[in-house]
Amino acid sequence: MTTFYEKDNIQCGIHKVWDTVSAIECYHTWRSDVEKTEVIDEKRFLTYTKDGYSTMFTITAAEPYRRWEFDVENSHIKGHWTVEFTPRDCETEIIFTGSATSKGLLMRPIGKSVFEKTYLRKMKEQFITDLKKSLG
User: Fold this and answer.
1) 93: domain CATH number?
2) Which of 19, 115, 129, 136 is the most buried (most CB within 10 A)?
3) What is the pLDDT of residues 9-26, one digit of tens each?
4) The 3-state secondary structure of the chain, one letter per residue
5) Dihedral Cα 91, 64, 75, 77, nearest 10 deg
6) Residue 11 sits in which domain range?
């Protein structure tokens, strides 16, 4: 398992950031990596890429304007994300903590670790890039 921790700042107030991030059914309008979402129930949803690749999210904790946690799983990886939101004047600090385990059993440990770290970083960077663009 690989763990990832990183901070970022969004030049927008916390209410707008939280409202955008937590509106799962609208992800396709601002996330470049999401074609559509399917809300299964109040705790679970699927995202689909433009190629139809799905990822299941299970919300494990939600404290509006403070913290959002979820398990994530697809055919390549299984993990957990914690996203913390802190207001800072006219911006919002977001702290990402993620862990992931590759499902590729044939990978050597070093290759598996590199894949997990790359996956976590890519997901976080795309999410933040899209969020900043949407709120900018």
Assistant:
1) 3.30.530.20
2) 115
3) 999 999 999 999 999 999
4) CEEEEEEEEECCCHHHHHHHHHCHHHHHHHCCCCCEEEECCCCEEEEECCCCCEEEEEEEEEECCCEEEEEEECCCEEEEEEEEEEEECCEEEEEEEEEEEECCCCCCHHHHHHHHHHHHHHHHHHHHHHHHHHHC
5) 60
6) 2-135
